């Protein structure tokens, strides 16, 4: 039979996590003989809408979207529904997640867990007490906002009430900016026991800056999210203490599976959660591939 | 000594040879690219590229926003300037105007007192914000004499900052139905209609009005323009204001179409708009170029985008090829126009 | 001044005068060059003997510059041969021409404005030290030596953009001389300089001639011809007409050959009944540039402005026209005090201003002839509801360009492709379209051939007849003296005297001009 | 009639006034901005801005990469051209070279046969990739006569595509210790040293060699340069190649410093590099500018970045202010240089 044709609109290729998601998706699709057409919106919402409409014009069987702007999903949903093409959102929660048409779904990990898992582990390592600096991702990004909120939520619980956030700034998900931000903090004389970063890249940047000033890695707890290969290597080197594995490939695979089910008219759960997993020096080897 | 009959020095050939318009060569490039996709389409996908109404619609639809911006940018380039701020001005106008376009049912309203306003209010706000940004650009360029590249680069960075700051980076959605018509009305053709009207108006302005003639004159030789009695300062300010206004209009069409405004919108639009103009034969050194060329340039970009998806070209290769096509389009155009650019 | 022994010190290749095995240092045989739509040169030949000044004459657009550019390796001929010192050469690039011993002064100034005088002169030939680095001190010294030799007073480290047009012209001349070439081409070297510098340049040329250099000299100034040229060749419309020793012919013969008809009157000045006072300027000053300029101008009067280069004549004109508004002083037009802050103000008051530098402040090079001609008139005239009245305008432009005998196939030719003289006519047309009451002409016949020059002169006379008041700045003494009712003489930003036609002669003017 | 003593027609001031170097004014701007942060620092943060070695280090460190690029871009701008491709060329060189810089212990090796190579091999690869991209730019500009803006815009798009395509978008990490020294050696000063050496070398090249003079001449007046016997084509190709090579070098320093290479690297670096040059007084119309100016321009950008973080300025405001400072820096520079731009 003709292989299924699925159009995939990724918000931005230049993102390590989304690259893992994308390659996971591609590998899986190749295995089960599904043809993917992957597009890069370059973080621009208008581009993405155009790509989806181009998919519709080309008559794909299903569309998978990793939205640039989770508010923009209504018109995407409308367009796909009007053309009768099934649509799956992946990784980023669309604003209309609770009113999706029948042949649409959402596959992701629940961001409420990521920051929570991460901060709880930091809290445990510090014994519930200490000064924390927070490196935020790009502020327009829902995950950055949610993960930062998670941190504050955990600190608001009685067990971790001894934690105090002494500085909180954005390093735009980037290693270079993370490193520069950390250097600036250090030179501003800010003291802290832990760094909680919204992702691993910024955490690695912080490590590099800290090492440069001669601070020993045992004296500070560093936490990231994503469990990228670089972060796992840093855990092995004793530099990063905590990260959270978000199953990128799992989300990609889940999105393809869900799309196929929708094409076949199967009844499915409209929200598919792929769980987060805590990664520490005790279990990191499991995640090294 | 050879003998010569004296001829009158002025000999306007009575039957002036009608030359092909400059845009002709770039139009051929457009057709060439379209034909290329058509042929490959039959071979690789077994489908017609152009014989598909919804694809034709999306081709024009997706260049409408860039096209509207490019019309304004074309004027700026003809004066010998450049506008790098368009993309950021789009974002800024979009964010500000969007907060006036929300309907009362939306969970995340920015100004609770200002909901369900008629559609033209956010539209006016968007245009005004764009024009204001353009005014600042023009003012800086004429009064402080900094190069347009720098003035608009500064605006590019600052306007993006304003866009982010305005709602703390959160997107704004939930527009009234009437406002959304700007991007979806007329059977979804509204953006295209707006684009074509804008292009037609400015085609006429540039070719048949004093304003247009002065714009070319300034780009061709600002000092001579000044001696000819043209008030360069006020004219340039107008030109940059129009460019800003059109960026604002583009923003309104874009957000009405996608029904959300986001601070990251319009990233790199300035480059696409400039590329459309230059592919269309507008000279970056000023004084040369036409709106029709820019429209064709924008269409080339649109055909490329759709064509790639149609042929299922990998996103990686898309960029590689897109870069090459921009170059080739301009090369072909220059070589067809040939003679004019022969000078060292 | 310069003498041969001084020049001997830095003598060119082949310095020792010896019997030369060739008669002509430069020969062009049957050259042809076609541009899209124009045959610029058709089967022309030119032969230049060493140690002579060979003048090349011809109307605007005759193909003189084109041939020179071929010799300098800038254009490639479609057919024909170039021989240097008797041998056929192929000059593929300007560099090849330079290395073959050809130097050229270009008609349009070709200098790197943002670089210094010294850098301009020695570009690609900079002295270098042991490490291969440019030796600026030596370069400065070489420039000073060159300038001393040529009696030029310029700062080698000045940026060219700071120099006046005339001084830039001198830099070009120095640069060309510095090559010590066998062939030196001078394409209208005197178009931007006054009599004094011209005399000085001729000294230089005579020195070079003594050294056996073959010089090709292009000019539209007939009076220069007999002073400096040994031989001349005439081109017309891209064709070779004739070559003669200058002793054999008269000036009228040459004009006859160039134009193909006779031009009886060079300066057709006619007595015109002077009308009312149109313009009255009192104590006009522009700080740091000129001071206390006062003069009156009547309808139908032609007021000449004479002075040395840099005396401030152009600045006064620019100020009158609002390009650089005055810092003090008053201007009255028709008895009304007026304030002229911009060129637009001036145009509205019925003034027109032909600037001296075609390329910098005149032409819109990318635009066509009509667009160039119409630019000053579409402020109010020819405009309805902001729309330009194309048809009316085209007719008017065509009319004026026919009247001025602009040589072009049609009104939509790009002005860039016209010869300099024809460009100048289009610019005059631009201002005539505005039907000015006061017409300011700054070097109106610069680079214009005799035929066109006399046309322009009779045009100025006609305008005077119609009651137009004319201010004419000119560095060509016969022109000022021949055309003016009165002559204002300037020196270093001051008016040093105003002479009536009867009192105005070469000596009197030079006296006032150099104080 | 006033009397005047006769002077030589042209009057070169006998005692040539030694003019201040052009960079002086922009240096004042740099000091001004630094002083501004210093004062605000004491008021708002209660700390010295400059009296902190590690901050000074990071200021220079973070501009090193942009600075190296900007040196190459400065040359290009002096010729009257522009290079929009630098950022993408950084990404492309980084990706390609990074695959030759991996050590054997890394879990995701790209070429398993090519690990633990000596540091200069990836370095050479990176430089070669950059120079090749520059060569293509120069070749396109001189042979096809398309404007530099278009040629390098095409390269910008294409090179980014190549960078993504090369490893399918996945990042490359796990560099050998020896390679990482390029970004971390000499007590982390390596990038700064490399930057300063590059700047010094090209300062000399631009001022004291024929190569430099030719570069200025071409930018000042290409026709004049041509008739002076300069081979514009071959010279421009060299200039663009050097710009590409330096982008490649910047890429090597950048990836060695952050120990990973990603396809998204270097985004917008071209604009920062151009901004550094223009802030430093390099004229976009060609023929004017110096390497020292560019270095100061880069430092201004670096001081701004650090200053904002130091004062804990909100990210939103950072952009708004950054845009404004770019403009103000150039305005101040132009006005201090004053006279030169007096001509209409
Ligand atoms: N680059 C060009 N493209 C097209 N036509 C040209 C070009 N250069 C010159 N021409 C044409 O060739 C002819 C000869 O021009 P040229 O400049 O040699 O004249 P000229 O004798 O030097 O005139 P002038 O005295 O005005 O300088 C003219 O008709 C001119 O319009
Ligand atoms: N923009 C300017 N800035 C500074 N000095 C200037 C400027 N323009 C002209 N000058 C100087 O003013 C003086 C008068 O120049 P102007 O061009 O008016 O003289 P001119 O008598 O018309 O001579 P020319 O025959 O060269 O046109 C010159 O010394 C010139 O260098
Ligand atoms: Mg000529
Ligand atoms: Mg003058």
Please describe what this structure looks like.
The complex is a heterotetramer, with one copy of chain A (289 residues), two copies of chain B (344 residues) and one copy of chain C (515 residues). Chain A has 289 residues and is α/β, with parallel strands linked by helices. Chain A has helices at residues 16-31, 45-58, 73-83, 111-125, 142-156, 175-187, 200-212, 229-236, 248-263; strands at 4-10, 34-40, 62-65, 87-90, 104-108, 129-136, 162-170, 194-197, 221-223, 243-246, 271-273, 276-279. Chain B has 13 helices and two strands. Chain B has a two-stranded antiparallel ribbon. In chain B, helix 2 (53-78) crosses helix 8 (210-220), helix 4 (120-144) runs antiparallel to helix 5 and helix 6 (177-184) crosses helix 10. By secondary structure, chain C is an alpha/beta fold. Chain C is built from 18 helices and 22 strands. In chain C, 54% of the residues are buried. Chains in contact: A-B, A-D, B-C, B-D, C-D. Chains A and D meet through helix 1, strand 7, helix 6, helix 7 and helix 8 of A and helix 2, helix 10 and helix 12 of D. One magnesium ion (MG) binds at residues 64-65, 107, 187, 420 of chain C. One magnesium ion binds at residues 313-314, 356, 442, 473 of chain C. Chains B, D: Keywords: Cell inner membrane, Cell membrane, Membrane, Transmembrane, Transmembrane helix, Transport. Chains B, D: InterPro entries: ABC_transp_permease. Chains B, D: Its main location: membrane. Chains B, D: It is found in: Cell inner membrane.
With helices defined by DSSP (H or I, 4 residues minimum), what is the helix count of chain A? Answer: 9
| Average predicted confidence as pLDDT of chain A | 90
Largest sheet: number of strands, sense, barrel closure of chain C: 6 strands, mixed
How would the global form of chain A be characterised?
elongated
Number of strands of chain C: 22
What structural class do helix, strand and pairing data of chain C support?
A: alpha/beta
- Shape annotation of chain C: globular
The pair of chains with the biggest contact is:
B-D, 53 and 54 residues
Helical content class of chain A = 40-55%
Report strand % of chain A.
Answer: 15-25%
Which oligomeric state applies?
heterotetramer
Are there runs of chain A of 5+ residues with pLDDT below 50, and where? none
């Amino acid at each position: 039979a003709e292989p299924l044709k699925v159009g995939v609109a990724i918000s931005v290729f230049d993102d390590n996590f989304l690259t893992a998601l994308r390659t996971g998706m591609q590998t899986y699709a190749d295995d089960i003989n599904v043809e993917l057409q992957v597009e890069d919106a370059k973080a621009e919402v208008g581009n993405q809408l155009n790509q989806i409409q181009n998919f519709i014009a080309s008559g794909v069987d299903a569309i998978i979207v990793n939205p640039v702007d989770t508010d923009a999903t209504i018109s995407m949903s409308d367009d796909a529904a009007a053309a009768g093409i099934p649509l799956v959102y992946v990784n980023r929660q669309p604003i209309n997640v609770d009113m999706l048409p029948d042949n649409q779904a959402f596959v992701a990990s629940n961001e409420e867990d990521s920051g929570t898992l991460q901060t709880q582990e930091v809290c445990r390592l510090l014994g519930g007490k200490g000064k924390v600096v927070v490196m935020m991702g790009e502020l327009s990004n829902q995950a950055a906002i949610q993960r930062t909120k998670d941190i504050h939520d955990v600190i608001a619980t009685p067990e971790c009430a001894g934690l105090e956030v002494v500085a909180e700034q954005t390093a735009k998900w980037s290693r270079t900016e993370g490193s520069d931000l950390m250097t600036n903090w250090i030179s501003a004389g800010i003291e802290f026991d832990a760094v909680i970063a919204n992702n691993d890249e910024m955490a690695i940047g912080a490590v590099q800056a800290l090492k440069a000033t001669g601070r020993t890695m045992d004296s500070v707890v560093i936490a990231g999210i994503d469990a990228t290969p670089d972060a796992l290597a840093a855990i092995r080197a004793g530099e990063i203490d905590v990260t959270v594995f978000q199953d990128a490939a799992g989300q990609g695979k889940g999105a393809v599976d869900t799309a196929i089910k929708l094409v076949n008219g199967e009844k499915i759960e409209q929200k598919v959660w792929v769980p987060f997993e805590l990664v520490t020096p005790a279990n990191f080897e499991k995640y090294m591939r | 000594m050879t003998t010569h009959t004296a001829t009158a020095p002025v000999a306007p050939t009575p039957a002036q040879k009608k030359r092909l318009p400059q845009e002709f060569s770039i139009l051929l490039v457009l057709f060439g690219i379209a034909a290329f996709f058509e042929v490959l389409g039959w071979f690789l996908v077994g489908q017609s590229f152009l014989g598909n109404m919804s694809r034709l619609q999306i081709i024009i639809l997706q260049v409408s926003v860039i096209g509207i911006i490019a019309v304004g940018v074309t004027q700026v380039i003809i004066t010998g300037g450049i506008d790098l701020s368009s993309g950021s001005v789009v974002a800024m106008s979009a964010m500000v105007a969007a907060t006036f376009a929300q309907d009362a049912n939306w969970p995340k309203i920015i100004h609770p007192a200002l909901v369900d306003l008629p559609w033209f209010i956010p539209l006016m706000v968007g245009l005004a914000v764009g024009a204001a940004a353009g005014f600042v650009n023009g003012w800086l360029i004429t009064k402080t004499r900094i190069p347009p590249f720098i003035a608009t680069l500064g605006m590019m960075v600052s306007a993006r900052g304003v866009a982010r700051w305005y709602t703390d980076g959160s997107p704004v959605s939930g527009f009234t139905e009437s406002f959304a018509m700007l991007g979806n009305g007329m059977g979804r053709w509204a953006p295209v209609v707006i684009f074509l009207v804008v292009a037609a108006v400015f085609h006429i302005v540039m070719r048949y009005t004093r304003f247009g003639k002065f714009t070319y004159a300034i780009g061709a030789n600002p000092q001579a323009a000044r001696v000819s009695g043209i008030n360069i300062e006020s004219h340039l300010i107008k030109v940059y204001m129009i460019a800003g206004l059109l960026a604002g209009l583009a923003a309104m069409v874009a957000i009405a179409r996608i029904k959300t405004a986001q601070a990251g919108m319009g990233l790199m639009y300035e480059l696409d708009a400039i590329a459309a103009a230059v592919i269309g034969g507008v000279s970056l050194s000023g004084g040369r170029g036409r709106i029709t060329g820019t429209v064709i340039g924008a269409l080339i970009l649109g055909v490329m985008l759709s064509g790639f998806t149609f042929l299922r070209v990998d996103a990686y290769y898309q960029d590689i090829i897109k870069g090459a096509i921009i170059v080739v389009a301009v090369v072909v155009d220059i070589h067809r126009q040939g003679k004019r650019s022969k000078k060292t | 001044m310069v003498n041969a022994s001084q020049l001997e010190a830095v003598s060119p290749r082949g310095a020792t005068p010896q019997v030369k095995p060739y008669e002509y240092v430069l020969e062009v045989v049957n050259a042809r060059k076609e541009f899209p739509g124009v045959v610029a040169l058709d089967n022309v030949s030119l032969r230049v003997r060493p140690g002579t000044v060979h003048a090349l004459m011809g109307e605007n657009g005759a193909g003189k510059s084109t041939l020179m550019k071929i010799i300098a390796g800038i254009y490639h001929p479609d057919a024909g041969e170039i021989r240097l010192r008797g041998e056929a050469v192929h000059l593929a690039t300007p560099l090849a021409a330079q290395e073959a011993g050809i130097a050229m002064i270009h008609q349009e100034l070709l200098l790197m404005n943002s670089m210094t005088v010294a850098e301009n002169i020695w570009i690609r030939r900079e002295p270098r030290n042991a490490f291969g680095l440019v030796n600026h001190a030596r370069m400065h010294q070489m420039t000073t030596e060159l300038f001393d030799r040529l009696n030029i007073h310029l700062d080698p480290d000045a940026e060219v953009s700071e120099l006046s047009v005339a001084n830039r012209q001198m830099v070009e001349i120095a640069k060309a001389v510095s090559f010590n070439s066998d062939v030196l081409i001078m394409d209208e070297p005197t178009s931007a300089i006054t009599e004094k510098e011209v005399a000085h340049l001729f000294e230089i040329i005579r020195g070079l001639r003594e050294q056996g250099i073959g010089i090709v000299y292009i000019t539209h100034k007939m009076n220069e011809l007999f002073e400096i040229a040994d031989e001349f060749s005439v081109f017309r419309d891209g064709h070779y007409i004739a070559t003669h020793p200058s002793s054999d012919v008269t000036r009228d013969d040459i004009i006859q050959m160039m134009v193909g008809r006779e031009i009886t009157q060079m300066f057709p000045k006619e007595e015109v009944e002077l009308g009312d006072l149109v313009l009255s300027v009192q104590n006009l000053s522009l700080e740091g540039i000129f001071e206390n300029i006062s003069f009156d101008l009547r309808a139908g009067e032609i007021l000449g402005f004479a002075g040395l280069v840099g005396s401030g004549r152009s600045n006064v004109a620019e100020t009158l026209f609002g390009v650089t508004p005055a810092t003090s002083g008053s201007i009255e037009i028709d008895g009304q005090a007026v304030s002229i802050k911009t060129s637009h103000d001036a145009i509205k008051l019925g003034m027109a201003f032909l600037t001296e530098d075609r390329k910098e402040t005149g032409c819109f090079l990318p635009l066509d002839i009509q667009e160039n001609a119409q630019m000053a008139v579409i402020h109010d005239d020819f405009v309805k509801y902001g729309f330009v009245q194309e048809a009316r305008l085209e007719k008017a432009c065509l009319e004026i360009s026919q009247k001025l005998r602009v040589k072009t196939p049609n009104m939509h030719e790009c002005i860039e492709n016209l010869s300099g003289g024809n460009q100048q006519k289009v610019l005059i047309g631009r201002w005539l379209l505005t039907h000015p009451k006061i017409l300011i002409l700054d070097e109106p016949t610069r680079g214009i051939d005799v035929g066109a020059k006399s046309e322009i002169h009779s045009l100025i006379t006609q305008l005077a007849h119609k009651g137009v008041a004319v201010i004419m700045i000119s560095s060509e003494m016969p022109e000022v003296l021949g055309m003016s009712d009165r002559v204002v003489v300037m020196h270093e930003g001051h008016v040093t005297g105003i002479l009536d036609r009867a009192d105005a002669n070469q000596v009197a003017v030079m006296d006032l001009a150099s104080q």
